[in-house]
UniProtKB/TrEMBL annotation:
This is Diguanylate cyclase (GGDEF)-like protein/PAS domain S-box-containing protein. It comes from the Bacteria. The chain holds residues 405 to 686 of 698 of the full protein. It comes from Petropleomorpha daqingensis. Residues 20-278 form the EAL domain.
Length: 282
């Protein structure tokens, strides 16, 4: 029986691999053949913790697959990256997002937008051009756009990162460090870069939650204190519960993002959602 179970497992495992390979092929082919039309952007609110006001939104890509439905980015981003489709995808997303934000500004909702940029894109010469094109076409104020970069993409080549960030800053675009706490880069080196915001990864919040007693949240508070000293703003990610909210407030975070405060939603849904929050006194 043990042997049969073992064989089943092997069988399941290889079926899983086959499916994975088939999926990779489908992603690669369909993205090349213009599935870009099937990509949509959802926007998740980022909320100020002192006033409750919606300061901005993070743009999160989804694939509206004709048979499989709405797919989250972890289903296709790594394949897109490998096949060189992620940069064109981000180029499209930058234009789409800036266009939406400009529309909201015209409607009296001047929201900031944050766009995720991959390490590879950040390392290219084209990023600056892509950003400028999106800003020029939409006539969005550069200050309204934040680029989210991961620790690792900044730590790979700090000298080059600093140069690239300075160029972006010179025309007004803001930069945030994303998923902070998931890499092992040098904190001192990271925080010496010209960045405006630190986004503290959800994993630190869940870790803080697990520690019982008066120490809960101390790590979070220490990080926030450090950002304050350096004049960097902090965003807590993954606020799912009232307890999370209490923790990040107590730690002194400036901003927060998470299911409790707002789910990712379509560009059409966002304005009325923000107005409802404003009317509720947020
Ligand atoms: P991220 O940058 O850390 O984005 C936040 C992710 O956390 C989003 O998942 C969001 O839906 C999810 N999230 C928000 N609030 C909560 C919460 O309270 N609890 C939990 N458990 N999760 C929450 P999503 O949209 O699936 O995106 C996953 C990752 O994919 C993103 O992580 C980002 O790294 C990447 N990504 C998304 N869109 C893009 C894109 O356009 N370009 C690039 N390069 N990466 C993207
Ligand atoms: Ca992000
Ligand atoms: Ca993040
Ligand atoms: Ca994260």
């Amino acid at each position: 029986a043990a042997k049969a179970a073992g064989r089943d497992r092997v069988h399941l495992f290889s079926a899983g691999l086959r499916d994975a390979a088939r999926w990779r092929l489908e992603v690669a082919t369909r993205l090349r053949d213009g599935a870009l039309d099937e990509l949509v952007v959802h926007y998740q609110p980022i909320v100020r913790l002192d006033t409750g006001a919606v300061e901005g939104v993070e743009a999160l890509v989804r694939w509206q697959h004709p048979e499989r439905g709405l797919l989250p980015p972890d289903n296709f981003l790594s394949v897109a990256e490998e096949t060189g489709q992620l940069i064109p995808m981000t180029r499209w997303l930058l234009r789409e997002t800036c266009r939406n934000a400009a529309q909201w500004a015209h409607m009296g909702l001047p929201l900031r937008i944050a766009v995720n940029i991959s390490a590879r894109h950040f390392a290219t010469e084209t990023l600056v051009r892509d950003v400028r094109t999106a800003l020029r076409e939409s006539e969005l104020q550069p200050e309204q756009l934040t680029l989210e970069l991961t620790e690792t993409s900044l730590a790979e080549d700090p000298a080059r990162a600093e140069e690239q960030l300075s160029v972006l800053r010179s025309f007004g675009v803001r930069v945030a460090i994303d998923d902070f706490g998931t890499g092992w880069s040098s904190l001192a080196q990271l925080l010496a870069l010209p960045i405006g915001t630190l986004k503290i990864d959800r994993s630190l919040l869940t870790a803080a939650e697990r520690v019982s007693g008066p120490d809960a949240g101390d790590v979070l508070a220490a990080i926030v204190a450090l950002t304050r000293t350096l004049g960097i703003r902090s965003v807590a990610e993954g606020v799912e519960t009232a307890e999370h909210l209490r923790l990040v407030r107590q730690a002194g975070c400036d901003l927060a993002q998470g299911w409790l405060l707002g789910q990712p939603m379509s560009a059409d849904q966002l304005p009325s959602w923000v107005r409802a929050v404003q009317e509720a006194g947020g």
